[in-house]
Write a structure and sequence with these properties.
mainly alpha; 4% strand; two-stranded antiparallel sheet; 2 domains
Length: 216
């Protein structure tokens, strides 16, 4: 166990398994890595876990330290993005957008305009504007994400389905139920081809579509 960055509240504890023959343990840890730690390394994993648990203040503390210790723009971009997500969870929407924009500024220096990293950032910004009831900006950023996904991903990719669903949600909030229905149908059609019937994402797609149908 060691103290991290002189912070009295944050310590690194290294744990060692006493054995590696428990098959169920391997399944559980493998699932955790896939769902919670996807793409994350080191202390970023802790920040991701805290974020998933809704411990936004603690997650921010971890990412603030990571940002302070990071020197290259390439590595700062995803940290800014996670700080944006943390601020979204805290309901501090203007700060969230500021962090996402910092991530985009770095991406513009090092990535091609159609890189999917732009799309994921745009997809993070869209819901922030939706929460602020700024529907034009919410729609604009979700559309930017969709444009990139359509150029770079297979037509049946789950991220594309999620993008259609996001746009459908904005149209729904705007009272444009015809477009909401159209985009929600596209999301569900793709999801049904890819995901098991009880997958949470597919259940969301179906719930959103049924809601729009009831309103109409």
């Amino acid at each position: 166990m060691k103290q991290i960055d002189g912070n009295n509240r944050l310590w690194q504890v290294d744990l060692t398994l006493t054995g590696d023959t428990d098959a169920e343990l391997h399944v559980v840890t493998g699932h955790m890595r896939e769902v919670i730690y996807s793409g994350a390394e080191g202390w970023d994993r802790l920040g991701t876990l805290l974020f998933q648990l809704g411990e936004f203040d603690k997650a921010q503390e971890v990412y603030d330290i990571l940002l302070d210790q990071t020197r290259t723009d390439y590595r700062k971009s995803p940290i800014y993005k996670m700080l944006g997500k943390v601020k979204t969870g805290q309901g501090e929407y203007k700060d969230a957008i500021a962090y996402f924009q910092q991530s985009i500024e770095i991406q513009q220096k090092i990535l091609q305009p159609t890189d999917v990293d732009f799309a994921t950032t745009y997809s993070n910004i869209g819901p922030v504007y939706l929460s602020m009831t700024d529907y034009p900006n919410a729609l604009s950023y979700h559309q930017k994400a969709l444009d990139i996904y359509q150029k770079t991903l297979p037509s049946n990719h789950p991220d594309l389905a999620a993008s259609y669903n996001n746009i459908g949600l904005v149209h729904e909030e705007m009272g444009d139920y015809s477009n909401a229905l159209s985009f929600s149908k596209r999301a569900l059609e793709i999801g049904q081809c890819l995901l098991p019937a009880n997958h949470p994402l597919l259940l969301d797609f179906r719930k959103n579509l049924e809601f729009v149908k009831r309103i109409m």
